[in-house]
Amino acid sequence: MKNMILTAALSMAWLTGFSQGSPDYGAGMKFNLNEDGSKYVRLIAWNQIWYRSSQMNPGTMIGDEPATSSSDIGNRRLRMLFYAQLSKRYMIVAHFGINNQTFTNGGAAGTTGTGGYGAGKKPGMFFHDAWNEYAVVSPEKDKKFSLSLGGGLHYYMGLSRMTMASTLNFLTIDAPIFNWPLIDNSDQFARQVGIFAKGKYGKFEYRMSYNKPFSTNLAPIPVLTGEKAIAVDNSGNTEWSKAGYFEYQFLETESNLLPYKVGTYMGTKKVFNIGAGFYNAQDGTRTIVEGAINKHDIKLFSADVFADLPVGKKENKMAITAYSVFYNYDFGPNYLRNVGIMNVGIADPNFTGGKALAGPGNAQASIGTGKIWYTQAGFLLPNSNEKPKIRIQPFGAFTYKDFDALEKSSTQFDIGSNFFLDGHHAKITTQYSARPVYTAVDRIDGHKGEFTIQLQIYL
């Protein structure tokens, strides 16, 4: 009987976390391993297709042709996640798939040119998550306090709510990327291998981890004075990293069955949380000054607030969603990393004008030593009595960045809307984004825009 009660509770937690805004989804793809359903496997599969019209940074070439703009369609994510409750305390998770396949890149290693393994074709599938977990103190035994320990390739990376965001239920079309400050350098697509502890004490939730970062070996540029030093990812014999995120949930408590934090519940929960977190890795970056190698710790901190609340008349099912986060990043002196999502552009060697410091395509200064403030908000419009019932949720986001390597701070914005056909399970998202274009450390030469339409399905 106890096993059945616990199974029901876990099932409800799962559905709360993965069925936002869809009353028809039910139990999803669940496969019972015994008669009473206390042992089972769940499967989630999802796909996000992007159509984009983009302005390219100055100095961009696509293929062998200079380009100032581009339109394309690509596979942002194609994933599958398995979750198995093998006993009331023991759980395993496996999550794999592909990301960022375009018509020019994103294919498997070595794909290039023309033919069966040409540019952008047959991307390599890999594991995003693979861990085991054991509930030392389960909610069944003590309703106020819980503790689970686990290990493997995991997503309990601390720092902020958005650092552990679910990719299934973003408010905006995607994350701003600087929420994953180590992305594919000292982590594997926002994950590291290590051990973690998670749990709750009443309305207080905690997540901590101790990990072995992936080794990095970028060569720093030798300089004569410390003011000109530029830190790069070079960890040598990598030291262990430490991470944590701590959150107080004032209203309804959220499920912590899995690490993935919800972007918008569409008013199906009353949530107001404040949180703070950190990530620290000793000797994670290096500089060379006057021939001497200097090692620098990676020290990252954040504080954030999240709210998702129904508003107005109950029958209208309106809701507001808002999230704001402040990051204080220290990777060492003048560290700066430029990122372009699904970037189809390459450098034009014949371009004679002022090139973008960030590089070609849609790249921009995304991560660096300095400060970032990011805020997003959305409003779920009143429910229509007409059929089919398409829910509409306009949203906007604002970003402020102040990096040590750049003499001017920058601002940028995103604006768009979600069109929910069946909650997050079937939705269309449109978004226009503007990014600053630095042509010198003290000069922003206007902004470039990108309009994206996303088609999302998940089962």
Explained architecture:
There is one protein chain. By secondary structure, the chain is mainly beta. It has one domain: Porin (Beta Barrel). The chain has one helix and 24 strands. It has a 16-stranded antiparallel barrel with strand order 2-5-6-7-8-9-10-13-14-15-16-20-21-22-23-24. Strand 1 (29-32) and strand 2 (40-55) form a beta hairpin.
Secondary structure elements and pairings:
Layout: H1 2-18, E1 29-32, E2 40-55, E3 60-62, E4 65-66, E5 69-85, E6 90-101, E7 126-137, E8 145-154, E9 192-201, E10 204-212, E11 222-223, E12 232-233, E13 241-249, E14 271-289, E15 292-311, E16 318-330, E17 336-339, E18 346-347, E19 364-368, E20 370-380, E21 391-403, E22 410-422, E23 426-440, E24 443-458
Parallel strand pairs: 11-14
Antiparallel strand pairs: 1-2, 2-5, 2-24, 3-4, 3-18, 5-6, 6-7, 7-8, 8-9, 9-10, 10-13, 12-14, 13-14, 14-15, 15-16, 16-20, 17-19, 20-21, 21-22, 22-23, 23-24
Structural class: mainly beta
DSSP strand (E) fraction?
Answer: over 45%
Percent of residues in helices = under 10%
Low-confidence stretches: 1-17
**Can you tell me the CATH superfamily?**
Porin
The count of helical stretches stands at 1
Main sheet, how many strands, which sense, barrel? 16 strands, antiparallel, barrel
Indicate the radius of gyration in whole angstroms.
Answer: 23 Å
Q: Mean pLDDT score, rounded?
A: 92
Annotation, overall tally of beta strands: 24
Protein name: Short chain amide porin
Organism: Flavobacterium noncentrifugens
